[in-house]
Write a structure and sequence with these properties.
The chain is an alpha/beta fold and about 250 residues long. The protein is about 40% helix and about 25% strand. The model is unreliable at about 15-25 (pLDDT under 50). The structure holds glutamine.
């Protein structure tokens, strides 16, 4: 009886080892360590966790879960949104995950994964502000964040509503300008400003409805690293099927 248990145990170990050879050896990424770029202050998608001094968030966890599922290696560089897009375009990074909205103009420069989240922008003003509509922005200054949908929306409407804009590198600086009054409003992704307000990090409020809701995607430079997009899509499908995706969203209150 003992011998049978021993034999079974040996067989089990052998089967597991073979399984590992098959799957580990089939790593699609091989030995390559992909460089992925991201934003750095865009909670709940990517932000510095003060306790661990590491970047955490929905995008960070999704990337980790997909890499594990698909068996590829990567390192993350949280360089800021505009810098992240620039690094991919310059070939200094292989991919970008940064709460990045999929839109036609970007699809001319990047190849996107399927969407993994959906959000749009919303107007943000100081908590005690009287500004309640686009019309109220006349003669005022609107804060924008480099490279974003919010910037594009603010620029596209400034002549119509008679305001000017001042651009900032990151969301934190943009919020500060609005909270301190050098700017009267900004346009930020709804889930992101919602998270900052809910955490009590900013003395701001949202006004009106969500603008241009659209999916977020993982992106690579157009025509490059197609296997990375393929692995992202496949991995996303798998983590949606096994519950990991829902678990990640729930962990960050989404
Ligand atoms: N979703 C917005 C965009 O794609 C903002 C992204 C960001 O600031 N990280 O422009």
């Amino acid at each position: 009886m003992k011998n049978i248990v021993k034999i079974l145990a040996v067989m089990l170990v052998a089967v597991m080892a073979l399984g590992c050879l098959a799957s580990c050896g089939a790593d699609k990424g091989g030995d390559k360590v992909y460089k992925i770029a991201s934003d750095n202050a865009f909670a709940p998608f990517e932000y510095l966790d003060a306790e661990t001094n590491t970047y955490v968030g929905v995008d960070m966890d999704i990337m980790a879960a997909i890499a594990e599922d698909q068996g590829f290696k990567y390192e993350m560089a949280n360089v800021g949104f505009d810098a992240a897009l620039g690094q991919v375009q310059a070939g200094q990074a292989d991919g970008v995950i940064a709460g990045m909205t999929i839109k036609p103009e970007r699809e001319e420069i990047f190849d996107f994964s399927v969407g993994y989240f959906e959000d749009g922008q919303i107007m943000v003003v100081a908590a005690d502000s009287d500004i309640a509509s686009m019309e109220d922005l006349a003669g005022k200054v609107v804060a924008t964040k480099a490279g974003t949908m919010g910037l594009e929306f603010a620029e596209a409407n400034k002549e119509k509503y008679g305001y000017t804009t001042t651009m900032f590198e990151g969301s934190v600086e943009m919020y500060q300008a609005v909270a301190q009054g050098s700017c009267v409003a900004c346009f930020e992704d709804r889930a992101v400003i919602g998270t900052a307000i809910a955490k009590g990090e900013v003395d701001l409020k949202t006004v009106g409805e969500v603008i241009n809701p659209a999916p977020y995607g993982f992106a690579v430079n157009k025509g490059q690293n197609p296997e990375l997009i393929e692995m992202f899509n496949k991995g996303l499908e798998n983590i949606k099927a096994n519950g990991k995706y829902d678990e990640i969203l729930a962990k960050y209150g989404m």
